[in-house]
Amino acid sequence: MVGTRGVPARYGGFETAVEEVGRRLAEAGHEVVVYCRGERHPEPEYLGMKLVHLPAVEKKVAETLSHTGFSVMHAIGRKIVRKGPDVALVFNAANAPLLPFLRAMRIPVATHVDGLEWKRTKWSGTGQRYYRTAESLAVRWSDALIADARGIQDYYVERFDADSVLIAYGAPILQSINTGKLAEAGFRPGEYHLVVARFEPENHVHVAVEGYRKSTATKPLVVVGSAPYADEYTAKLRELAGDDPRINFLGGVWDQELLDALYAGALTYVHGHSVGGTNPSLLRAMGAGASVLAFDVNFNREVLGEEAGRFFPDAPVLAREIEAAEAEPGAAADRGAAARKRASERYVWDDVATAYERLCADLAARRLTRRTVRRKR
Known about the structure:
By secondary structure, the protein is an alpha/beta fold. The protein has 2 domains: 13-170 and 349-373, Rossmann fold (3-Layer(aba) Sandwich), CATH 3.40.50.2000; 179-346, Rossmann fold (3-Layer(aba) Sandwich), CATH 3.40.50.2000. The protein contains 15 helices and 13 strands. It has helices spanning 13-27, 63-81, 99-104, 125-141, 150-160, 179-185, 205-214, 231-241, 256-265, 280-287, 298-304, 315-327, 329-346, 349-364, 370-373; strands spanning 33-36, 45-46, 49-53, 88-91, 109-112, 144-147, 165-166, 193-196, 221-224, 247-251, 268-271, 292-295, 309-312. The strands form 3 sheets. The protein has a 6-stranded parallel sheet, sandwiched between helices. α6 (179-185) packs across α9 (256-265), α7 (205-214) runs parallel beside α8 (231-241) and α12 (315-327) packs across α13. 47% of the residues are buried. The model has no long low-confidence stretch (mean pLDDT 93). Pfam families: DUF1972, Glycos_transf_1. Residues 192-342 form the Glycosyl transferase family domain. This is DUF1972 domain-containing protein. Residues 1-171 form the DUF1972 domain.
């Protein structure tokens, strides 16, 4: 499993998927090797997975690709000197230029294409062109594509006439709130609105802050998040918040127990993500029973359905939704319960791991190849 920051999962959706799927595959008797960058785990194994720590060029435009390059060379070395991997799971279409090296060693490859990364505003025109080119290379050189949402599947059909395997993420299901953790942070259940997001424009944290400021809400807004290379956008958010005493910026919260408590205790969770397919933060909020107010895009409607959330296209509509939740907290709680039920039925990590196991078996047996990615015209 290559192309992510690795495990233990401390960063994002890819890392969580690697941890949840990888440990289940290891429990099923498979040998799982995870390539990691960043903080080194003190042991060579974690939850049954074997860890390989390698460096990266610490620059925004090169970090992911450079680390994956080192990882691919390491995997090839294992293949040369002894039995290497039967299958490679490569996360992020941005790593597609490295796929021919794996293919040259006859290692079947599935690429998890992620969301529509080229739409992210942090990438310049050159970056956007690179990501769009990388998508086409992933289609050309992968034996299978993995999409985590039907909207992503549809995009690859429409743009590349390419098939993909739909495997979403799982949702952790929380049954109770750690009120002690909330109290330590200064909050009470049902007495605040919550945003959890990396600070990037396409996650619409600015719309969340602006919408909240336009509202007559009396309960505070708690904003959890940060991002590397995002100083300008962070400054914009603080400018939008102004001196409003109702808005609390907590920065990044790395204490998972506290983060879960924040999700579970929120009156509403405001989800502004718009380009990333099935978003793990949304699934975590649903699993915690949060009442979700989501930015109105097809990915979020696919995950929530029509009963498990409310949708906003802009700040004025969000302001009305926040006010409505405060006026009718019982209705908000009912939506949260519906969201938890939907997550527990549709987004189950055991099912996700089984789908990955089946995919790997098909790749190893050569039932999936580049020819199966291209649709028959």
